[in-house]
Design a protein that fits this description.
Blueprint: E1 9-13, H1 19-30, E2 36-40, H2 46-50, E3 54-62, E4 66-67, H3 69-78, E5 87-93, H4 105-116, E6 120-122, E7 125-126, E8 138-140, E9 143-144, E10 147-149, H5 155-178
Helix pairs in contact: 1-5
Length: 179
């Protein structure tokens, strides 16, 4: 795959329980990007984000809509990142039943900052086949800011959803290259 990039792709993730890390491993094993640098949340810096034109973010939402701990600790710095000219795709994990009012809120919390700071988000995902009450992760028109996954209640859907999302990213990237 030829992503419009001669530059590396940065995949940033935070994982407290291991579920997000599991999805990152599925992503890395499935998508053929030779120039992919994976950066664990506890190691990320503002300068790391500046190095990439294409950024992938994976995180979970905890409890009552809280960011995963690495992103929570980094959030003040995250808000200072200039995303101008950057393309960002995100996936988020959450529990749509036990935390139905906060399902994948992390996608929306980060997504709002990315857009406000000049970024372009791709890979928005339709709100279909999920059962929750509210979510800051919803962008508009029934779309999430990125791919929502629920390893607690729909683990069997993670792999097919991830595969479909990766195909969506490839299509959107190709359209950007051709434009």
């Amino acid at each position: 795959m030829s992503i419009f990039l001669e530059n590396e792709v940065g995949l940033f993730y935070g994982s407290d329980s291991g579920n997000t890390e599991e999805v990152v491993k599925m992503f890395v094993d499935s998508w053929n990007i030779s120039e992919l640098e994976v950066i664990e949340g506890s190691d990320m810096t503002v300068e790391d984000y500046a190095r990439f034109d294409f950024i992938i973010i994976g995180l979970s939402t905890w409890y009552d809509g809280e960011l995963q701990s690495d992103f929570e600790d980094f959030f003040e710095q995250f808000q200072t990142i200039d995303f101008s000219g950057k393309v960002v795709a995100m996936f988020g994990l959450g529990d749509q039943y036990d935390y139905a009012e906060y399902f994948v809120d992390g996608l929306g919390i980060l997504g709002e900052v990315i857009l406000a700071n000049g970024g372009h988000i791709i890979g928005m995902w339709p709100n279909v086949d999920y059962d929750f009450d509210e979510s800051k992760g919803l962008f508009e028109d029934g779309l999430f800011y990125g791919l929502p996954l629920d390893s607690d209640n729909q683990r069997d859907m993670n792999e097919p959803r991830l595969a479909a999302w990766m195909q969506k990213l490839e299509t959107e990237i190709q359209q950007m290259v051709e434009a």
